[in-house]
Design a protein that fits this description.
47% of the residues lie in helices and 15% in strands. It is built from 12 helices and 8 strands. Strands 1-2-4-3-5-6-7-8 form an 8-stranded mixed β-sheet, sandwiched between helices. Helix 3 crosses helix 4, helix 5 packs antiparallel against helix 8 and helix 6 packs antiparallel against helix 7. The radius of gyration is 22 Å and the shape is globular. It starts with a helix and ends with a helix. The N terminus is likely disordered.
Length: 298
């Protein structure tokens, strides 16, 4: 009798294992694989989609970064939204080969990914240079984009800049890119940041392709010389909110002269990479910004 019971128990364990294996296999079978879609100029753009629900949130990284910089937002916001992350051309797993890495071309990258993800209502979230990129993307998708959220960016879209200013800033990057990146980025990271994260950010950004990075840097800064950084917002009829650290002051009046509406959430004593080193606080602020744009109170 005991032998028979043992046999039944063993068979039950095997059956449970088979059922669990089939269930896990089904989960993996239904998982969304990373995607690649051609931008307008044919450059392949890598992206990933997590979760479901509208409005979709399309996260756009900053200068010399990539989609990994949003790692602490994906599991939180994919619970209630379709979350889309991507690598702009010349970054991460996306293709390169452009002669110029303009903000407009990056905007086309975002448009291509957004359409491929199949979202009808979208909030674009852009970090640093990504603030300029999402403005270009919003211009291209007026019927889909319902709001823009900048992350430590768009402090003053009227910020004055000259060609001489730009050349002084770009020169160290052109002379010795890794050393130039370290000098440029180091001051944007709080001394309180985990040393391993600090080292990773500096090493990662310094390993970006110099030709891509220098071109993108010059194209982004040139918008402030020409005034395009401000004028583009006059064509975008959606609310704009920025979630910023307090490294630089926010010029509300300047931004509101050009934007349909503008507000900022400033995290005290936070730095340029607040979505990584102040993730919990940042995520709460981002949820509030999304609620404001959608009109759904938190």
């Amino acid at each position: 009798m005991k032998s028979r019971n043992k046999t039944i128990i063993s068979m039950s364990k095997i059956l449970i294992f088979i059922l669990v294996s089939c269930f896990v296999g089904a989960i993996h079978a239904s998982a969304q694989w990373p995607g690649v879609v051609p931008s307008r100029d044919g450059t392949p753009i890598a992206y990933e989609v997590f979760g479901t629900g509208e409005p979709a949130l399309v996260f756009v990284h900053g200068w010399s970064c990539d989609a990994r910089y949003w790692r602490k937002q994906i599991p939180v916001f994919s619970k209630n939204h379709k979350v889309v992350t991507m690598d702009l051309a010349g970054h991460g797993h996306s293709g390169s080969g452009r002669e110029r890495y303009t903000m407009r071309a990056f905007g086309e990258d975002v448009r291509a990914v957004t359409l491929a993800a199949g979202s009808n209502q979208v909030i674009l979230v852009g970090h640093s240079m990504g603030g300029s990129v999402i403005a270009e993307a919003a211009r291209l998708m007026p019927k889909r984009v319902i709001g823009l959220i900048g992350v430590d960016t768009l402090e003053n879209i009227e910020h004055p800049m000259t060609e001489e200013d730009l050349n002084q800033m770009a020169s160290p990057l052109e002379k010795d890119f890794p050393a130039g990146v370290h000098a440029f980025v180091d001051g944007m990271i709080s001394k309180k940041t985990d040393p391993d994260l600090r080292s990773w950010v500096l090493a990662d950004m310094a390993s970006a392709p110099p030709d891509v990075a220098v071109s993108a840097f010059r194209e982004m800064a040139t918008q402030y010389i020409t005034g395009a950084a401000a004028s583009i917002f006059e064509t975008i009829k959606v609310p704009v909110i920025s979630l910023n650290g307090d490294l630089w002051p926010v010029n509300y009046e300047a931004n509101r002269r050009h934007m349909m509406s503008y507000d900022a959430i400033v995290l005290n004593d936070a730095d340029h990479f607040l979505m990584m080193n102040r993730a919990d606080e940042f995520n709460r602020a981002l949820a509030n910004a999304i609620a404001t744009i959608t009109g759904k109170s938190k």
